[in-house]
Amino acid sequence: MDAAPGGTGERDHFIPARKIDVLDAVIADGALANDADREKFRLLCKLLGAIYHYEYFDRLEKLRNDYFYFSPELDAVHPRADAAAVERAYRELVDTLKGVLHNANFIEIPHDEINQAHREHALVQVPVVAPRDNYREVLFFRRGQHRETIEIPEWFGWRVRKAEVDVYDDVVLLVAIRSDAKSRKRHTRHVKLRPGSVLLKYFRDIARTDLNALFPDVRVVMGLKDQLWLGVPAIVGGIPILLKLAATITVLFVVAGFYLGMGGSAGESDMAGALAALTGLVALGGFIARQWTKFQRQTLIYQKILSENVYFRNVNNNAGIFDYIIGEAEEQECKEAFLAYYFLLAPGGESTEAALDARVEAWLRKALNADIDFECADALAKLDRLGLLQRNGEKLSVLPLDEALHRLDRIWDNFFPYDGARKVTPA
Q1: Vertex 222: Cα angle to 219 and 227 (nearest 5)
Q2: Which of 177, 181, 180 shows the shortest CA–CA distance to 199?
Q3: E strands present in 155-289
Q4: Which of 53, 215, 257, 395 could potentially form a cystine with 130 if both were Cys, beta carbons 3.0 to 4.6 Å apart?
């Protein structure tokens, strides 16, 4: 098995093509002998899609209902919701979301990889920090990956270095904000970071080492290079002003004491020295203000880079991602099911699980130019649950097209019994 980018050692299960494109490629494969069989197979895929769409509707409703308590758009949690109900809704939200993302072939990113991202950066060429102590839980999920060549400016833009980075095609982020008193005090000024809320973000084309840039409330910090670039000229330029002030500052205090009635005397030379000291103080204040402005300007430049990177890679947010990931899960489930059915139906299709897995993966490499770890066991479980799979020891086969269509039609009809009969679930 080929190692995946990022050193994970596993290939993706994600089939990176539209359902219609995979279906057309299957039809073009030529194993279905005539137009009638090809039309029946298209109808079978349509029924599979309708069944999965109906079944996932319940999960979509559950995600929406559980997320109600945690939406950042709410000013506060519903007053009639007790703490136990909110906690139960949170756990169900996370569990349901994980299940849907798994079915959409997302993989949860381990915490070690997230921590490593805090020490590195690639596409976002600025050091950033995120107040992770403010979060109750942070979960990252990724799907699809590729390598990308980027240009990294060095020596303040005088030189450009090319580097290859691992980039995730899709990334989903869940951030649960703490609801304790300490967190509430920290976050009251941030409308989108209501204590106890849950932020959901969907991104595309995120470098593995830039995961830390996706955190909410992330801020740019100055690296050592920028600190030296701004600090060294400040020290060099400030030393002459400080030396000049050191020689005249005592005269300024003498003159100030004289005019405040604190005794002493002040001649013309003292007045000139005091004026020079005042001029030096004004110059020092202007110098400090100028350096502070340079610091703020550089910070704003980096913040702009960070914002643009996140803005153009953000696909959806909060409750809006539910429809998107539910649709993705439906598509992946349907593609896996009809691929397994087709290659068991095709001539010479009776096979073992290992042989089917190898056959489908070889076809995906040829038809889609994609090295995919096909979830054969999961696909067979789908066919088995729908009553389309037949087992004879290790040998596998599927119902013929006509029988399979009748079977799926009965399942669909039983979703909506008009005579009050008990609904029959798929076998």
Answers
A1: 165
A2: 177
A3: 159-177, 198-207, 219-220
A4: 215
Q: Are residues 344 and 362 in the same domain?
A: yes
Q: What is the pLDDT of residues 21-50, one digit of tens each?
A: 999 999 998 888 899 999 999 999 999 999
**Which residues neighbour 166 within 8 Å (Cβ) at sequence distance 6 or greater?**
5, 6, 145, 146, 147, 207, 208, 209
The pLDDT tens digits of the residues spanning 391-427 come to 988 899 999 999 999 999 999 988 877 665 555 555 4
Residue for token pair 């849907």: 100
Contact 171, 214 (CB under 8 A): yes
Do 185 and 288 sit in the same domain of this protein?
no
Helix (H, G, I), strand (E, B) or coil at 427: coil
Q: Name the β-bridge partners of 198.
A: 176
User: What tokens appear for 266 in the block?
Assistant: 């002040």
Q: Around Cβ 376, how many Cβ atoms within 10 Å?
A: 23
Report if residue 166 sits inside a domain: yes
Q: In which residue are the tokens 């066991």 written?
A: 377
Task: Please tell me whether residues 129 and 34 are part of one structural domain.
Answer: no
pLDDT tens across 345-379, in order? 988 766 899 999 999 999 999 998 888 999 999 99
| Ranges 74-78, 161-165, 236-240, 259-263: which has the least confidence | 259-263
Q: For residue 81, is it within any domain?
A: no
Least confident window among 15-24, 35-44, 59-68, 123-132: 123-132
- DSSP-assigned states of every residue in 19-50: HHHHHHHHHHT--S-SHHHHHHHHHHHHHHHH
Q: Which two tokens stand for residue 242?
A: 């400080």
| pLDDT given for residue 50 in this prediction | 94
Among all chains, which residue has been given the structure tokens 């990022």? Answer: 6
* 259 DSSP assignment: H
Per DSSP, the three-state class of 402 is helix
Between CA 86 and CA 78 the distance in angstroms is 10
